[in-house]
């Protein structure tokens, strides 16, 4: 019945493994690719993966028959080849099994090594404890010698009272451990069904030797008094260091976690002795008094009596959950575990008697006058048991008298409540309450809560009359509420057995009568503590009780009834539960080993890593050394340009072409399908549950040793079962530890955190990947996907050809653009040289300014701020007509916009025509003089002085005014606009009209006389006289300048006398 262990692996197991491996190699290899099979997921012999074991055995039998009696028509060479293949497969399986056995042997040797180390460590600890005990005995002898020598000297202190010197003594024969007052309550807990481990933990927390629980008949005490019964050495009588007001705050800092070095620095800064931080229980130097008593008895303070812990036990009594109380204790920097051990010595009390004596010596007090006597038999007990004797005995719960019931005069509606058990009343608030103090209006209560309001009085009268006539019949007593009665009655009816039969079956541990289902029902309906309390406190006639109450009363005669049936169920279910757990362990071990040893799977991961790094090459995710395993579930979701083809299909296609042997990797990991449903946490919880129930069983076995009930086989049957179960669980625990280590190593090898990725998640990822891997492989073999790949290859070839043609066209275009760029560069350089030459001739030193003006004009034209005609005019104004006729054609060549280029060429034609007309007009007006003055002017001249009357008026030639260019021209232009705007008084409409007439004159749309007449109509004549010369300086065309100045001079001849004209 024990689970499969490594030590049990023998030849038969290897043979079974060989047969299984042979059958798996023929039928279960999911990814075998045979030339006769069309899909890697189909077994070569056509059998199904999930075929039952019986069918497999039949197939094996048929194979053996065929091997023994080959048919005549088969080819012997083919048959020999087949046998050779079988032998090779068997050898491979045997090799795998041998490797696994070697691995198990290594694990066993490692476990054995650890066991030996633990034994050595245990032996070393025992030897150290023995040495410590010997040293203690030597110290005791030395103390006796010192005491004897001290007794010879005159006593320096008063002798201690006799009551303080002598303690309780034994009767000379000692007391058995189970009857000793310090251990009695723990044996009671054991008999109540509490697991032995928990009882030992309580004993250890209370400072009692837990080993005594295993030997209840051990004798404690002897003829000599124990060490605790002797007088205690004189105490210092002063204040302890930790209780001193000046030092207490520093010990609080130490409890809060502050480093001791830092605290000592604070103590030194405060002028205190920092060395006292290391001796908190030593008396304060100088605090001892001469009048202190020589001896003092030790008073042990329990946890619940300690003022620091007392309030928390009050909270528990008030009904606050223990978990919440423990949280409050932790927040107050107290040990929360002490809430479970209220009778244990408080950690805040002074040291024990031996410690007190030592402190007295250290404090400089005289040693005790009487030597300490040591009981030799007491040396065998541990130090914990010695300390336990100093603790006071826990007061027993007072036995409460039975409370009388108050019977109402009429039948009332009952209040269904849950009574507080009698054994816990003393520790609750109900102990301080007495319902007899409450004043009630009984009559009103009976009237308001009577069962039948209408016929209550009639029924009472009828009952009285019947009671007078018919003798009273006993009434059935029901202690439980109706719902509970109904549920238990239904369960009892299903048993079809009496309570006596059930009790006998429980004593006999009869699994035929009481199966697991019956035990489960018995456990589910077992009475609660309150119900047990009600049944035990019932002192009426048992015959009057209901069937449910009688059923429970009969079963409760079984000692520790509930614990017994739980142990019985544990035994019945143990084998099936262990086998199920062992099977789960084997599955996880197999799946872990298969993934660990699969080289083909790792090669698949290599291909995926290469594909992913290439896909992510242009992103920060590229250049990865590895990837998380959840990436495997994303391969079939990443679609290509054809949504039917995913990255998984591409991976399979690459593996078929580059590494076809790794496609069969799924055959190396067949157990991942089952492993994905299992959990290490659940297995750990199951093992913990098994051990907890085993601890309960062992406690019940120890408790039932002294039951001595006729027909009771519990101790006889459960004792060997508990031993066997313990061995089985130890072996199972070792297997689980090995599995946990192997799984953690496997998961860590993939870069995952074993604490976050459990077997269910890990193997589910692998199983889904294998499923999609197979699906993609099958689809790749279909005609549909073959056609997809052929179309994709053809489309790729066409795309590559088109791409090559596109690259050729792009190269030609780049060559053309380069030639055009070079040509444009030459054209632009020619423009710059023309402008530079003109500026050097007409405006030396302002070459960069003129070039900047040209660039601004070109930029304005390129941004459609000016028209082509305006561009030609601006260039003409900048560099003159002759230079502009050379620049404008080259500027047109630099334009990439064909429409603009054509518009500029058309404007250039108009510009040349206009320049041609101006030249012809200029030829006609060249060397012309100003026209003679009018007759009125001659008459005015004749009326002048006589010396001028006979003179002839000769027309004066007009001298040219130098135009301004560059920055000077800009400043002059800005000054003209500001003065004109001021003359208009800020009128924008008049300003627009002025700008329009100025542009028209510049474009030769109006004559100089028309423009001058507009100025005279718009401004004051004096302002016009100042404005016209400034406007003339802005005109680069000399003909326009002369025409404007001529118009000014003709209207005002006096201007001819001014300089510059």
Topology:
Layout (H helix, E strand, L loop, with lengths): L10 H18 L24 H16 L7 H77 L9 H4 L9 E2 L7 H8 L4 H10 L13 E2 L24 H11 L4 H10 L37 H11 L4 H10 L21 H10 L20 H8 L51 H7 L7 H14 L12 H14 L3 H10 L7 H10 L3 H9 L9 H9 L5 H37 L1 H17 L31 H12 L13 H4 L4 H24 L10 H36 L9 H22 L2 H60 L4 H16 L5 H27 L3 H28 L9 H8 L3 H4 L16 H18 L4 H15 L5 H11 L2 H14 L3 H14 L10
Antiparallel strand pairs: 1-2
Helix pairs in contact: 1-3, 7-8, 9-10, 15-17, 16-19, 17-20, 20-24, 20-25, 22-26, 24-25, 27-28, 27-29, 28-29, 29-30, 33-36, 34-35, 35-37, 36-37
Assembly type of the chains comes to single chain
Total helices: the number is: 37
How far apart lie the N and C ends?
Answer: 136 Å
Class from helix and strand fractions:
mainly alpha
Largest sheet: 2 strands, antiparallel
- Overall geometry comes to elongated
Helix content: 55-70%
Proportion of beta-strand residues? under 5%
**Mean residue pLDDT:** 75
Total beta strands:
2
Low-confidence stretches: 1-73, 151-172, 222-236, 288-298, 350-397, 927-958, 1056-1061
Strand order across the largest sheet: 1-2
As a whole number of angstroms, the C-alpha radius of gyration is 58 Å
